[in-house]
Automatic annotation (TrEMBL):
InterPro entries named in the record: BPD_transp_1_N, MetI-like, MetI-like_sf
Segments forming domain ABC transmembrane type-1: 98-307
One GO CC term on file: plasma membrane
This protein's name: ABC transporter permease
Keywords from the named record: Cell membrane, Membrane, Transmembrane, Transmembrane helix, Transport
PANTHER family: DIPEPTIDE TRANSPORT SYSTEM PERMEASE PROTEIN DPPB-RELATED
Main localization, broad class: membrane
Amino acid sequence: MLAFAARRLLVSLGLVWVVASLVFLVIHLIPGDPAELLLSQGGIAPDPAAVEELRERLGLNLPLWTQYVTYMTGLLRGDFGLSLQDEHPIGEEIALRLPRTLELVGAAGVISLIVGVPLGVAAALRAGGTLDRVLSACAGLALSIPVFVVGTLAVLVLAQELRLVSAGGYVPFARDPGRHLALLLMPACTIVVGLGAVVFRVMRSSVLEVLERDHVRAAQARGAAPGAIIRRHVVRNALTPVVTVVALHLGSLLGGTVLVEFVFNWPGLSGYLVRSVEARDYPEVMGIVLVISSLFVLLNFLVDLLYAVIDPRVRHG
């Protein structure tokens, strides 16, 4: 197990380095001079001397390879550089906003598993029945509704019309835990509508496939209790594709919760990314994209380890 984890860790670290290099190169290949864009106001061309002075101060006049070495050395120290807008440390802003996005995505993932897995099992065990048809229809409907529509309807109905919950906002957990969780519930459940439907459909298909395997039929032939067969032989084996799907969706949600955070005024990392792109703040964009990409790689590393726990054959493959 340790050898398997070490191999996967080395691969993950290599991927992070490749991602960091690609992000650096892509950002520097974008047309436009950041210094000139920062000094331009109202469409008036800035003073060339001021542009050159700012380029020198930001290190933009250095050769590309020198900037690359400086950038990678800073990353090894955990230094993402300074914002071009106000020279605020980028790492501090990411450290402030990242836990909020992780909390939102993590809560949505947990709720999706709690809801989707049991319903998927129930539908598969009654395949073709009324319950299966109803749940499958609801899942199809949930997948067809865009997340911003779900969020807007939740705010309109639950917050404004029924006044059951707040329309949005953010309160630190340390200040008011109850209020914090109440504000987290709506945006998390908005994501769950689509993600939970995906978990349901994958779990249902996986359970139906596992039920046809020889070891399950052998357990049935031995007269094992149906509940024990479902718990020991079906659900555990059926979870492997579900873990994959959830991990991929959670990885994409790390940078894709922009609309949810906007609708519910949740100050996470996605909104910070949009603001940085609009301001052409390249160091901020590089830092945020690198963090999101690294988390995606880390998530896949953890999924590989979870595979090895669920199915011991994986670590010997």
